[in-house]
Write a structure and sequence with these properties.
Layout lengths: L4 E7 L4 E4 L5 E14 L5 E13 H10 L5 E9 L8 E4 L5 E14 L27
Parallel strand pairs: 4-7
Antiparallel strand pairs: 1-3, 1-5, 2-3, 3-4, 5-7, 6-7
Length: 138
C-alpha cells in the first residue's frame, strides 16, 4: 500500500533544525494551507489547515538554510497519524478551543517564493488576510 499528500502553503514560523543521536539532520516547520469560498448564505468563509512538516538529511539542511516565516512551499510526503488514536494529533489552543495537527514526513520540498519574498521580518508574508496573526498550534 502507498499514500502521498501534496500541500501548498506558507511557513508559519522559521524552521527548526536538530540532529538525531546518529547525526542525521531533521528540520521541522509548520505550513498553513488556506482557501476561501462563499458559503450558502453568501458570506465569505476562510478555512486554514496547519501541517507540521519534517524533512530529513540534506533536504533538512537545505530547508533550514533557505526557508523563513512566510515562505511559500509545496510539500509532497507521507501523512502520519497519532499512533494511539490513528487520527491527527489534537491540542487545546490558548482560547480553550480544540485544534488538530496534521503531520507530514516530507519526500520533496519545493521552494515557491523568490529570495526577496522570504527575507527579513515579515518578508514574503503571503498569508491570506488575518492568518499572519493567528496562533500557530505548535
Amino acid at each position: 500500500m502507498y499514500h502521498t499528500i501534496i500541500i501548498v502553503g506558507n511557513l508559519g514560523k522559521d524552521p527548526e533544525m536538530r540532529y538525531t543521536p546518529s547525526g542525521q539532520a531533521v528540520t521541522s516547520f509548520s505550513v498553513a494551507s488556506s482557501r476561501q469560498y462563499t458559503g450558502q448564505n453568501g458570506q465569505k468563509v476562510k478555512e486554514t489547515i496547519w501541517f507540521r512538516v519534517s524533512a530529513w538529511g540534506k533536504q533538512a539542511e537545505t530547508c533550514n538554510q533557505y526557508l523563513r516565516k512566510g515562505s511559500k512551499v509545496l510539500v509532497e510526503g507521507r501523512l502520519t497519524a497519532d499512533p494511539v488514536t490513528g487520527s491527527p494529533k489534537t491540542f487545546t489552543r490558548q482560547d480553550g478551543t480544540t485544534g488538530s495537527s496534521f503531520e507530514i514526513y516530507a519526500n520533496t520540498v519545493r521552494f515557491m517564493s523568490t529570495r526577496t519574498e522570504g527575507e527579513g521580518e515579515g518578508g514574503g508574508s503571503e498569508f491570506p488576510e488575518g492568518d499572519a496573526g493567528e496562533d500557530i498550534p505548535f
